[in-house]
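[job 0412] stage=complex_fold ligand=zinc ion status=START
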Amino acid sequence: MIVLGIETSCDETGVALLDSERGVLAQALHSQVEMHRDYGGVVPELASRDHVRRLLPLVQRTLSEAGATLEQVDAIAVTAGPGLVGALLVGASFGHALGYALGRPVVDVHHMEGHLLSPLLAEPKPQFPFVALLASGGHTQLMRVDGFGRYRLLGETKDDAAGEAFDKTAQLLGLGYPGGPAVSRIAELGNAGAFAFPRPMQHSGDLNFSFSGLKTAVLTAVRNAGELSEQVRADIARAFVEAVVEVLVRKSLASLAETGLRRLVVAGGVSANQQLRQALKRETQRVGAELFCPPPELCTDNGAMIAMAGLARLQAGAGGAPLGFGVRPRWSLDDGS
Ligand code: KG4
Ligand code: ZN
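[job 0412] stage=complex_fold status=DONE, emitting structure tokens
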């Protein structure tokens, strides 16, 4: 079965063609980073308009790279939420219209389920059950995953998401948007111990996170530093990254201990972070657990993960009538729907 995956929930237009037997046949991505950079963040209306411009050419490019025709597409998977409503509507209306025209089923995918299942596109693939750390721009969650569609929330952030903390720290350090990769890069040049930031909720006794206090600590450090030299900037970035990584790693290991599971899957944009990947690798090895981290290009938003989640849903019997559709800008992954 060949599934066309379409992702338009935020600032990336992603398209992929996934074959249930052969894996990803082709994929294409357009990032709107350059367009939003001048505004210091994503401008929803501009995002929607750009998805409109990019989507059809990306679908055509993906098909031609795969040497496939539209008639060979057996089903279409679209991100139906959570995300920016206008941006979601572009992909959902395009996908459902295409499904109707081709007479093919269309399946609505939860964006975070896409992230959650993205490690299944890489080798080696994790077996169920596993614990998943999902860390993106809008979510930071720990999930127990027993199979497709069988997700139990173990813990989540009570305020900012980890990616949001990266983006806000980048802004405070004058690094612009998007923040994650920039903060991570300059953190490598920072001196250890120059700043000490809190590890929020480290000893909370549960599996939840909080990152807003850390943002305030960065703000205070920036204010106290006055003129920010390159070195001070790098030192703050390093202390920030160390704090985020330590909390994410600790709670991930605590989730393994609490569930008794030995496999940890990490997904979402923040899992592209090298410091986090290295720390998770070291710590999972130490406790004898297996770590599954998709390559960085599969960690951030892409069409392949949506095709993957769509395929899993289709194989479980999903795929409604293409004429009726809607999007869900806010949508919990463990609400059973
Ligand atoms: O999953 P994603 O691409 O989009 C959402 O679903 O939100 O995640 C984007 C988030 C942004 O906050 C971005 O700053 C962060 O992931 N991010 C990173 C890195 N690459 C992306 N954070 C830390 N280090 C990175 N290398
Ligand atoms: Zn995402």
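The mean pLDDT is 95.
[job 0412] exit 0
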